[in-house]
Structure formats: C-alpha cells, structure tokens
Amino acid sequence: MTLANYITFFRIAMIPVIALAIAFFTVDDQAFRLAAAVIYMIVALSDWADGIIARKFDQRSRLGERLDPTADKLLTNITLVFIAVNPHFAIPIPMWLPVVVMLRDSTILIGSYLAHRFFGPLKPRARVLGKVTAWTQGITIAGVLLQAPVAAHLIWVMVVVTAVSFIDYCLFGYERVIPEMAPPMKESH
Question: Measured on CA atoms in the order 177, 115, 121, 8, is the torsion positive or negative?
Fold first, then answer.
C-alpha cells in the first residue's frame, strides 16, 4: 500500500458522502448542496494529488493502476446520477446524460477487455481526449453543484467532449486491433 493508494481509497470512501449530500439537498436546505460541492472538489483535487505523488515518489502500483480510474468513474457516474434525479438543482442535469456517460465508459471497458481477450495483451494508454473529458466532466459537476450560471453551457460542452472522446477511443481501439486481425502475409518465392 502506498500513500497514493490511500488517497484513492479516501476518494472511494467519500463517494457515498457526496451522494447522500446531493440526495438530501432541497431548495430550502442549501447546506447539503454546498457540502456536496466542497467535498466533491476536495475529492476531485485529491485525484490530481495522488497522481503527482505516485509519479514523483515512484509509488505506482498495479493496484493503483486499476483502482484510480475505477474511483474516477465511480465518482463521476454516481455523482451525475444523483444530481440528475434530484429536481432541486437550479441547473439540472438531464436524466439521459448519466446514461450516455455510463454507456461510453462501459463500451470502452468492454471493448478493452475483448481486445485483450482475443488479441492478446494491449497496454492501456490514457488518451489526451480521455483526460480532457475527465476534467470537463469534473468542472461541469462542480459548476452544477455550485449553481454557477455557466454550468448550463458546460453541460453541453461536456456532452460534445464526451462524444468526441468516445469516437477517439473507438478509433484508437480499431487501429490497435485491425493489424492483429489481418492474415499473415505469404512469402513470395
């Protein structure tokens, strides 16, 4: 266990706290929304911190490689679902949006598994658009929790970035798998 892994476990432990704060938020009780916003931003920043610690102090681990992205997806998806089902937000998240985000994440995960299963080990690599998507989703969620007027526009930016990132991952996967599917070239005599 490394310090970076402990920070990741902290992030996972805070997800239910954020979800409950969002669930209890009403127009008459803004404290829960503000608590959710503060905790969410601390947890989101801790993701950045654990990455720096893992790299700077050489604390990368197999557990961390799997746990960190899982924590990110859980935080984003669960928070989006709880915001979408709470009708008290001034800038609502459409009910279909968490479904789109979860479908993107699930399709990438299943595609990676199938490529690994049928074409051998493929070293997963973070895509620049994947990181941009994570930041866009995080900023959008924070904007909605803070009821920032710009959040309505951020939601649509998030939709576009998420879609473009999905296409990028699909093309990347396709480029990695197609050479593996090609029949071997016959030598000419």
Answer: positive
